[in-house]
From TrEMBL:
Similarity comment text for this entry: Belongs to the P4HA family.
Catalytic activity, reaction form: L-prolyl-[collagen] + 2-oxoglutarate + O2 = trans-4-hydroxy-L-prolyl-[collagen] + succinate + CO2
Name recorded for this polypeptide: procollagen-proline 4-dioxygenase
Coarse class of the protein's main subcellular location: endoplasmic reticulum
Cofactor dependence: L-ascorbate
Its membrane topology: Single-pass type II membrane protein
UniProt source species: Coptis chinensis
Domain Fe2OG dioxygenase, first and last residues per copy: 139-261
InterPro entries, per the entry: Oxoglu/Fe-dep_dioxygenase_dom, P4HA-like, Pro_4_hyd_alph, Pro_4_hyd_alph_FE2OG_OXY, ShKT_dom
């Protein structure tokens, strides 16, 4: 169909529905049953997570980074700090080869992990993060709260993993949402040293020396920084290299949400002693001989791993 045809069809459409712009017509259209089949379903209660797109600024496309001003309220910031305050431990880093958590001079903060949906405030913030990033909440790790005192820092690093072990559950980290829970007197900026257009961000002496070495974001209570560690084609993006500059005056509190490519939640398993099938297809699979053909999944492995179809395989 050429453009002329399309245009006349469109005009015909407009003339046939003279009231289309009228809100009652629109409301009726939106209320129609077929909306139930749309891919994104917003229940009334889900509409307000507090995510406000008008408060988002694009900082850079390489790395892909965005700043949401006032993402958290002061009360939410204080609440997160209070949940973490008495439970801080020395922060660790993932070893490049083994993937194990190890202490390192590279990272000198202290921190702790909250639980997912730990309380209503945490759950609301997690829903807001999902609304902003368009990434499902189940792909996220539990929030990590971090505390940096004078001189403490995190040297530039990548949030994607170099080892295979840490990619097993959920795959690579695709995005990070870094929420600033406190103002910092001086220092504590998030810095991207491999940002290409470094000269496009002039800096005066309110910035620390470390912040001058890249594109930097000043920590401001309530603001949130979103950046992507993978390109849109899912390859790792080295320009996402980032660090936390040493705190020079005051202290810094932040909350981090790492989001993976896939679901990061460990599938809930049935209790060891229970005689159950954990997949609705178990009886059918067992009938076609899968208990013998695929024993590791159906029955269980040699290392004490329990199978998913123990009932249908007549193990109990
Ligand atoms: C891990 O590997 C990356 C990339 O090869 C490197 O830049 C980084 O310094 C390594 N980190 C450590 C702690 O060895
Ligand atoms: C993925 O995208 C990046 C950034 O656009 C590009 O540099 C890279 O060559 C792409 N890689 C593949 C395998 O397409």
């Amino acid at each position: 169909m050429d453009f002329q045809h399309l245009l006349s069809l469109f005009i015909f459409f407009l003339l046939s529905f003279p009231n289309f712009s009228n809100s009652s017509v629109l409301a009726r259209f939106l209320n129609e049953k077929n909306m139930d089949n749309s891919y994104i379903r917003l229940k009334k209660s889900d509409l307000w997570t507090g995510f406000d797109p008008t408060r988002v600024i694009q900082l850079s496309w390489q790395p892909r980074a965005f700043l949401h001003k006032n993402f958290l309220s002061d009360e939410e910031c204080d609440h997160l700090i209070n949940l973490a305050k008495d439970k801080l431990e020395v922060s660790m880093v993932a070893d490049n080869d083994s993937g194990k958590s190890v202490k390192s001079e590279v990272r000198t903060s202290s921190g702790m992990f909250l639980d997912k949906k730990q309380d209503e405030v945490v759950e609301t913030i997690e829903a807001r993060i999902a609304a902003w990033t368009f990434l499902p909440h189940e792909n996220g790790e539990a929030m990590q709260i971090l505390h940096y005192e004078n001189g403490q820092k995190y040297e530039p690093h990548y949030d994607y993993f170099h080892d295979k072990k840490n990619q097993k559950l959920g795959g690579h980290r695709v995005a990070t949402v870094l929420m600033y829970l406190s103002d910092v007197g001086k220092g504590g900026e998030t810095v991207f040293p491999d940002f290409e257009g470094i000269e496009t961000q002039p800096k005066d002496d309110t910035w620390s020396e470390c912040a001058h070495k890249g594109y930097a974001v000043k920590p401001r209570k309530g603001d949130a920084l979103l950046f992507f560690s993978l390109h849109p084609n899912a390859t790792t993006d080295p320009s996402s290299l980032h660090g936390s500059c040493p705190v020079i005056e005051g202290e810094k509190w932040s909350a981090t949400k790492w989001i993976h490519v896939r679901n990061f939640e460990k599938p809930a398993r049935a209790e060891r002693g229970k005689c159950v099938d954990e997949n609705a297809n178990c009886p059918q699979w067992a009938a076609s001989g899968e208990c013998q053909k695929n024993p590791v999944y159906m029955v269980g492995g040699s290392k004490g791993a329990i199978g998913y179809c123990r009932k249908s395989c007549n193990l109990c």
